[in-house]
Amino acid sequence: MKLQELLRDLPGVKVEGATDKEILNIEFDSRKAGRESLFVAVKGVNADGHDFIEKAIKNGAEVIVAERIMEKRDPKVTWIIVGNSAAALGRLAAAFYGHPSKKLKLVGVTGTNGKTTVATLLYRLFSDMGYKTGLLSTIENKIGAMVLDATHTTPDAVALNALLSEMVEAGCDYAFMEVSSHAIWQSRIAGVTFTGAIFTNLTHDHLDYHKTFKAYIEAKKKFFDDLPKSAFALVNVDDKRGNVMVQNTAAKIYRYSLHNLVDFKAKIIENSLKGLHLELDNTEFFSRLIGDFNAYNLLAVYGTARLLGFDKLEVMQALSNLKTAEGRFDYVMDEKGDRIGIVDYAHTPDALEKVLHTIFELRQNDVKIITVFGCGGDRDRTKRPKMAKVAADYSDQVILTSDNPRSEEPAAIIREMEEGLPAYGKHKALSIEDRKNAIKTACRLAQKGDIVLIAGKGHEKYQEIKGVKYPFDDKKILKEAFMDF
What we know:
By secondary structure, the chain is of the alpha/beta class.
């Protein structure tokens, strides 16, 4: 593609040099730049791409997109000066791949909790209704039935548009993607056109990155602020920040709730460990999913399908057959069926409380709840004592352990977690650094009928320690431990 064609998506920028050059690829990593590459210098959290411009040129880059220009310049190199290079990267990537998002019905899901479940359920729903569908999620990326590994909640701008382009080429009609606060703030979705956007909920998370809760709210809200008039915005108004999200959106606003008369309303008739019995849109509905939080997830999925033009009964019929996403309230039974194991990704105080509250409400009186969880290293430290208190409030036995300690010492993380244990919770808490041993101990302690919750990792298949990701699967280890004890 010619540079001058790409520049149509960057009107009003300063250009110095020839624009008739052929562009074979777009890079923001100087190490990957080569002949006929366009290199975008993006200022990141830990590094500034402007510091690597010379390296990109040495590697063969012939076009540089940056927020500032070098004093000494090679006349063979074309410079494009922009106000925000991260946003420019997104727009250029979209143009380079032929604006694939405009050729799909693309819906983004944002919020602290529920993103993966809602996006995955939408993917499964539309696939079951006979449509070739794409999925971009924390767990996996999918193009129809083809599965691709996912490394981030939202890919970088180039990878994102490449994936969307593959979906278009494969004949996908719909695509559903998680949209993280990082991706919004870092302009990874700049240049992407959304048919719709969903807001699930908002609680304290990612303060290691955003620093303040206000900044976190602003990041999420920006997603809705940037929606076009043609899009819809579907928000959970039982979360007090639901209406805040759509204060300044141009999109058509729709709301969903379990407690208010709004566009999409549901009422829980019965909630048990067998599933949910709901009154949804004035019609009784059954689902194998469990818990209040899944009632919200189902409502968001139902509302989205209806807004995309599908018939009520067709949607309900397909929705009733759906299973939960991997690592989200994921059931594991021991061989005799005596004990119940649950693996869940809950890694925030709010998510952990929702899962434990559901288990607490649904268990029989004499059933004990044993909770195993840890807190991630190099992440928001304020969550650690809060999560310990939540676990102590709802559990009969708590085992504090490791969960991706990264560069931190597991013992130090656990000590910060222990600070949140109330006096009434200290006697029922154990600290076991080794996560595998912690899970085994929980299974050894569990008696007939007891429920063992393994929280924090969910779908993840690794334990990250000192920069190395070691194979680790909560669900597999839980199954093995049930067999051993």
